[in-house]
Known about the structure:
Blueprint: H1 20-25, H2 36-41, H3 63-69, E1 96-99, E2 108-111, E3 121-122, E4 128-129, H4 155-172, H5 186-189, H6 195-208, H7 215-229, H8 237-248, H9 252-269, H10 275-297, H11 304-321, H12 324-342, H13 358-374, H14 402-405, H15 409-422, H16 428-444, H17 455-481, H18 488-501, H19 515-524, H20 528-539, H21 545-564
Antiparallel strand pairs: 1-2, 3-4
Amino acid sequence: MSxxxxxxxxxxxxxxxxxxxxxxxxxxCDEKWPCSRCTQTGIECMxxxxxxxxxxxxxxxxTRVHQKLHSHHSxxxxxxxxxxxxxxxxxxxxxxxxxxxxxxxxxxxxxxPNTGDxxxxxxxxxxxxxxxxxxxxxLDLGCVNSxxxxxxxxxxxxxxxxxxxxxxxxDYGPRVVWPPSEPEEGEQFDPxxxxxxxxxxxxxxxxxxxxxxxFQEMCHFYLNFLxxxxxxxxxxPERTIGWMLQxxxxxxxxKLGMLCTVVLFRSNYERSMLTPSxxxxxxxxxxxxQQRLPLxxxxxxxxxxxxxxxxTEIMNYEFYAGKLSSYYTHGAQAVxxxxxxxxxxxxxxxTLRGEHTFDVRCFAWCDIFDSLATSRPTHFTxxxxxxxxxxxxxxxxxxxxxxxxxxxxxxxxxxxxxTALSHAGILIEERxxxxxxxxxxIRGWEFGLAKAKRSCLRVARVAVQEIWRHAxxxxxxxxxxxxxxxxxxxxxxxKNIIKISSTVPxxxxxxxxxxxxxFIAGAFATSQKDRYALxxxxxxSGNERYLxxxxxxxxxxxxxxxxxxxxxxxxxxxxxxxx
Length: 579
């Protein structure tokens, strides 16, 4: 057959709706899922979400971002014209909800208009869950609002600013889709199969107890984000909602603190036109919580635990929002309350267990890791009889900080001891000797068998234990030995953290609890490859503001380290980040 008789070949046009991977590489895509190009090359095929409307994603830059962009950002980003009344919930099962203060204070009423109930979304297990979306890792340029330039500028400068904003969005924009959008990612969403029990407890509670309508938003929050805020979230799933309702009722400031955290999470992970207003409303709720907090702390009718809970819930918001100054201030305010609860200046993490110690354990975590970040002594001592434990830490127990934050309790105790040793007024030789003993103890500790329903989660939890082991070794070299980044032991631990973390899927549980370890390893990383890997693990673990603070601080450390030729201590940068 002659070539002239062949049917004309239809040219293959570049895909407009193909996968994000092909778009990033500027390749042709057959628009299948997964596409043939990604299948052949063996790389992840990232699909762009369907676009029913152009979402508006706004970023809040801190001062370091302004300095990096070198442009006039004094006016900030354009504020949304969406009313705050639309910001509390997307689940329009009620039209109004009120939060009432006591008789001596002002009555606060939140009007929640019915915005229309969106089509229900199905979880990886076939259950209806609230509709939440987030921007993909590769954001469209239109999703970022350029700052308004007040001065007369040329088109070239405007193009330059847009390019810088685009680069910022690619590096620091939201990366995590939560809840996961693909069925095969169901193991990340509920790896312990605990959501059915939590959902059942919500139904029972709603049927048998008269609760405020606004608490329904809390229920939706725990169905979607519980395993992002509590490491071992499946210990008592049938008790979770009832316990949270008790905390919700303890005080008005605790209630407002819980609500502003809920709205903040939605603003971080929900992809909708309400995202800017959700962020603004979270700040408004936080402002109300701050106003109410002094009244609750001075109220003689409130118990010490209720006051401590108020501080814990407000600090929880400040942590995720990156409000460092207030976070550290409230942490100091909690010290006398914790001391009153314990009746001692020592916290034994290996014996603290149960719901009634939750706030004390949260404070202990903040105390230990705030001291790591700011190079100050801890407010409490952390003495525990390690020998009595027989070198075993049981993951299934609701004990210490491990069940909440994922760090093995023994490692947390040894981190606190390392901090105490770094501030001890002893000879350098004696400090070095004790540091060697600490490192030996960290290396030789035998962790208990990690427990989980699914084998993939058991493997991930074993990896978490080893990652924390190497992070603790690095902290000893940072605080005690002042080791150079080129130290062989240091580099071995950095490489091990990178290698072991590759077995932990990014963005879910337990990865979203490992940022301190990635940061500590990143501070010692010397090669561009290792630095990029660890920075990516931090930014890929969630969409919160404090993660960008960690990434920026790492960049500053690397810049100073490269200039001076020696390790730049992150402790010289107080209150620039939080663990």
